[in-house]
Amino acid sequence: MKVRIEDLSVRYGATTALAGLDLTAEPAAVLAVIGPNGSGKSSLIKAVAGLVPHRGHIVFEAGNGSERRIGYMPQDISSRAALTVLEAVLLGRLGRLGLRVKSSDLAMAGAVLDELGLRHLAGRYLGELSGGQRQLVFLAQALASEPNLLLLDEPISALDIRHQLEVMQIVRRLTHQRRLTTIVILHDLNIAARFADRIAVMCRGRLICHGSPKAVIEPAMIAEVFGVEAAMSSTPDGSLIVTPLRAV
Ligand SMILES: Nc1ncnc2c1ncn2[C@@H]1O[C@H](COP(=O)(O)OP(=O)(O)OP(=O)(O)O)[C@@H](O)[C@H]1O
């Protein structure tokens, strides 16, 4: 599913969150969206998910007549719902559930719980989880819908470093294996550089640049967009390493 975003604008009353943004997300590719707080990243994802009113066009080009199935993981993962982890994950399949939960739905939910190492928490209530565990459950819910368009709003912000890497490895593998179109908002430039195929940089509701990690992540962009002086190096396997030095 290719997503073409043309001249997209989002306003909340007097606040302009997005102003005339053009961007394309391709299948089988992880598109990371980075940018300072308040730059419009969540508004972009919410507009693509159909959750906020917008102007402009969002065109979904599904190949082979396949329908659009969106897996959306919100930034706010607080939950007062009296649901168990398994119930919350099954809710990700709401569009497919009939009056009875089929064994195929339970099998899919179980497989996702296994993939994210959550099986032992299946019977726990959401309110009894740690922040990081709850974040993994919301990711599981998004994956349980068997999406072809995966929209993840800061999916690793509450996770320890091992879980950050595990989640990004899973997201990248599923994106490539199942040809998902994945748009993921990230704050960690190193994670974005390592796991994204393309990176879009936003600032004040506008797209500043987009391209491959190597083309986009460089000191001048980091200084201009984030107001940070940074040093660049690379890992033995060639991934970029950004070391933020000081706010300028
Ligand atoms: N529901 C809302 N009502 C009014 N203004 C809003 C609303 N949601 C977001 N905004 C404003 O829109 C702008 C963009 O917000 P958005 O959440 O899209 O940014 P973001 O880049 O995702 O930020 P962060 O990195 O802090 O999550 C901000 O100025 C924000 O204050």
Explain this structure:
By secondary structure, the chain is of the alpha/beta class. The protein has a single domain (about 1-245), classed as P-loop containing nucleotide triphosphate hydrolases (Rossmann fold, 3-Layer(aba) Sandwich), CATH 3.40.50. Helix content is about 30%, strand content about 30%. It has eight helices and eleven strands. It has helices spanning about 40-50, 85-90, 105-115, 130-145, 160-175, 190-195, 215, 220-225, and strands at about 1-10, 15-25, 30-35, 55-60, 70-75, 150-155, 180-185, 200-205, 205-210, 230-235, 240-245. It has a six-stranded mixed beta sheet, sandwiched between helices. Strands 2-1-4 form a three-stranded antiparallel beta sheet, covered by helices on one side. A two-stranded antiparallel ribbon has the order 10-11. A hairpin with a 5-residue loop joins strand 10 and strand 11 (about 240-245). Helix 2 (about 85-90) runs parallel beside helix 4 and helix 3 packs across helix 4 (about 130-145). The protein is globular. The mean pLDDT is about 95. Adenosine-5'-triphosphate binds next to strand 2 and helix 1. Adenosine-5'-triphosphate binds near residues 37, 38 and 42.
Keywords:
single chain, 248 residues, alpha/beta, Rossmann fold, six-stranded mixed β-sheet, three-stranded antiparallel β-sheet, 11 strands, 32% helix, 31% strand, globular, binds adenosine-5'-triphosphate, nucleotide-binding, ABC_transporter-like_ATP-bd
